Amino acid sequence: MPGFEGPRPITFADRDSVDALYFRYGCGDSAHAFPSIYLWQKELELQLWTGGETYTVLCARKGENAWFFPVGAEEAKAACIEGLLEQGLKRLCYVTEKDAEFLQRRFPGAFTVQEAPEDSEYILDCSQVIEMPGKAYGKIRNRCRQLEKTHAVTWEAIGPETLRDAVTITRQWKRNTDTGEGVRDEWASAGVWAAWEKLGMRGVMLLLDGEPWAAAAGYSLGKGVLDLCLMKARENLPGVTDHLRIALTRSLEGEFAYLNLEEDLGVAGLRQMKERLRPCAMNRMYSGDVK
Predict the structure, then answer these.
(1) Which bin fits 3, alpha (ψ -120 to 50), beta or left (φ > 0)?
(2) SS (H, E, C) 249-277
(3) 3 phi/psi in degrees, rounded to 5
C-alpha cells in the first residue's frame, strides 16, 4: 500500500517510531508495546507494517491475513484499515474497547466484533500483591509460609552480573516443562535476557538457601504500569511464584502501582491462575472479523 513499509521483521531500528506512536496514541495494553511484539515475533509469527502516523502487525498465528488493530492518529488508523481491506483483510485482533468503538463508528457494518477473552490482559494492584489482605489471599499466604518453613527465601535485583544465573534458570525451566504443546515462549524468554538493557527490563531473582531458583522480569508500559512478561523457576515448588511476584513488586515500590500479567492465550490453567490472583482490572480485548 502506498506510504507503508513492510511487512518486515521487527528490529531495534523500529523502536523509536513504534514507541512514539504507542505512548502518544496507544491504549496502554501490553500487546501493542514494542518489547512485546519484538520478543514474541518468532512464536506468534509477527511482522511489522508502518506508515506515517500509524503501525500495525501481521500475526500469522491468528490466521490468514490477520492483523493487530493499528495504533496511531485517527485518520491514519482509518486509512490503514481501508488499505488492509483492499488487500484482503480477514481479521483484526487485539482490539481494545476503545478500538471496537472506533470500528463501529468508522466502519459501520463492516466487521463482526466479538470478545476475545484469550487475548484480554489481567491487571494487579501492587499494594494488594504485597499486603495480601483478607480471606481471598489465604491460600497464597499459606503457600508462602510453607516455602519459608523449608527454605531461607531471599531475593535480589537482576543486573548485568546476575543475567547468567537468570539464563540458567530459564534453561532449566525449559527442560522441566518442554512438552511441545501450545505456544512456547523459548525465543521470547531468551530475548528478555539477551536484550535486557535495550528493552529497559526490570527484574528480580529469588534465592532459596542462597541458590538462584527463580527469576521475574518486566518493562514499563507507562502511567505506573509494569508489564510482567516473564516468570521462570528451576522447579516450581509451592510458594515460589508467589514469593517471586511479591519480591518483584517490592522492588518496584514508589515507581509502579500496577502489574500487567498479559494474556492467557486461551490456556485454561493459566487463566485460572491469573483469576485467582484477584486482578483489580482487565484490558478486555476483542476481535473484528470482516463480514
Answers:
(1) left
(2) HHHCCCCCCEEECCCCCCCHHHHHHHHHC
(3) 90, -5
List, in order, residues 6 or more apart from 149 with CB less than 8 Å away: none
List CB contacts of 186: < 8 A, sequence separation 6 or more: 43, 174
How far is residue 118's CA from residue 224's CA, in Å, rounded to a whole number?
Answer: 24
3-state secondary structure of 236: coil
pLDDT tens per residue, range 184-232:
688 999 999 999 999 999 999 999 999 999 999 999 999 999 999 999 9
Same domain for 113 and 140?
no
- Determine, yes or no, domain membership for 168: yes
Three-state DSSP class for residue 66: strand
Q: How far apart are CA 226 and CA 256, in angstroms?
A: 6
Cβ count near 55 (within 10 Å): 29
pLDDT digits (tens, 9 = 90+) for 105-134: 999 999 999 999 999 999 999 999 999 999
Taking the C-alpha atoms of residue 57 and residue 39, their distance in angstroms, rounded to an integer, is 13
126: exposed, middle or buried (Cβ count in 10 Å: 0-12, 13-18, 19+): buried
**Which domain-ending residue is among 78, 95, 120?**
120
Whole-model pTM: value is 0.94
